[in-house]
């Protein structure tokens, strides 16, 4: 492959990977390019020391960036050659990628690539518009192709349990000053020029309650922040789904992140957004209860609600100069 072509592919992939989703928009990744290979590393300075002491959410975030790199390479006409956790002596090196054989990107891959910068996280209720069952089944298959399982929660009782666990976890974390200060660290005040964290316009000041109620993060802790957008009609819960893996290793956390981004981009291509509720997964006793009682023994890696929203949102990402070595 010509050097000029390789440079274009690698530059496009890293530029797009900045737009992957991450917990609190921490963007906990660094990239480096040497010859025709991209290295993806964890930026451990951006790890949540309280809410994510194990680094699980950090690796899920980086896994989402990895799927983005793979997708762009395919869109550029090359099958990516990927090595995950290639060096046990360098635990922060999560993956390497280089362009492999020439391919013709299919229609779905091109559609996924087109959603990378358009996809947005939602932090309120959804419009009363159903998500087609056929789309949900496609999302299930998308997660499965990355080694994870996406399970739509069809039982009303199970949805009530997950909502109650979310409220309980949020209630406990709200009383813990360490959790609250860590969340507020990644909350951007109105008018902030920061290129990471959750912007004040990214969540409603007073979110209407869904039924059952799924507690939201308190990004405005002790501040009068949040969007004034009229969301009185956005009170639907949407489709509750849990992303799980058979085990709970670092490899499976990265797999979960790749599955998550595959699901999110596919959903976005059909006008469906996701709201995340990870509080319960940050408290190991509650996560273990969820694993045993709701997830059939598999390890829950992400809880989300899927639905349709008509709110326009903005998002920010760090410039390439800050994430590329």
TrEMBL record:
Gene Ontology molecular function terms on file: oxidoreductase activity
Nitroreductase domain location: 8-37, 116-307
Origin superkingdom: Bacteria
Any Pfam family hit: Nitroreductase
InterPro entries on file: Nitroreductase (IPR029479), Nitroreductase-like (IPR000415), Nitroreductase/BluB (IPR050627)
UniProt-recorded name of the protein: Nitroreductase
